Task: structure prediction
Amino acid sequence: MSFFVLKTVALLSMLWDHVTHVWPLAMTLQGIFFPNAAETVPALMILQRATGYIGRIAAPIFLFSIANGYRHTRNFNKYALRLLVFACLAEWPYYLLFGFHGNIMFTLLLGLLTLRLMDWGNEKRAGLGYALAAGVVIAAEYFALFEGKGRYILFILVFYWTEHWPVRKKALLWLFLMPLSRYSLIWMVFFEQSFNYQWFHILCMNILGPLLGVAFTFFYNGKKGLSFPGDKYLWYVFYPAHLLLLGLAQRALLGA
Result:
C-alpha cells in the first residue's frame, strides 16, 4: 500500500467523521426513508454506531505520516512551516465546526518538532533526547491544548521508533498501548459506575477504531505512489477547506 493510498484512506475516513458530525447518519437516513417515525429506528442507530468506527481510522494514519515524513523530508524547516501555516488557517474553521480550539495540524506540528528535539538531544548526550520527548508528551497531555493531547505525540514517536519492527511485534505493542492511552475512558466505564452500553460503545470505538487505522499502516510498502503537480499541498488545503464548508453548513442548519 503506497503512501498516496494511505493518505487517501485517512482523508476519506476524516471526511466521513466530520460529515456525520453535521448530518448524523441515523437522523439523516430516518429523515429520508422514515420521515413519519416517532422515534429513531433502532436498526439505524445500530448502523450509525457500527459505521462510527470508520471515522477513527484517520488519526493514526496522519500520525504515521508525520513519522514517515520526518524520516524522508529533504527540508525540515519548510515541512514544519507548511504545517504551521495550514494549522493556523484551519483553526477558525475547526472552531466553527466543533466549538473548541486546537486542531490536529497543531498536534502534527508538535509531533514533528518533538522528533527533531529528540534527535537533537540524543546527539548532545545519550538518552537526553528521550527525556526531552517524554517531557513534551507529559506537558501536551497535561495542558491539553491540541487534539489528541500527549497520547498523539507518543503515537508519533512510537511510529518513528518501530518503523523496522516485524508486524507481529508492532501489533502486540499497539494492542497494549492503545487501550492504555484511553485510561480515562476505561476508568470512567469500569470504576465510576458508568458501565452501560453507551459508554462501553464509546470505549470500544475509541480503541478498536484507531487500531484499524494502525493496522492500515502495517501494509505500507515504502513507496510514494501516485503523484501529480501540487499533490503535496492537496492534503493540506483539503483540511481547512472542508472544515470551513461543513462549519458553515452546520451554522446554516442551526439557523445561527
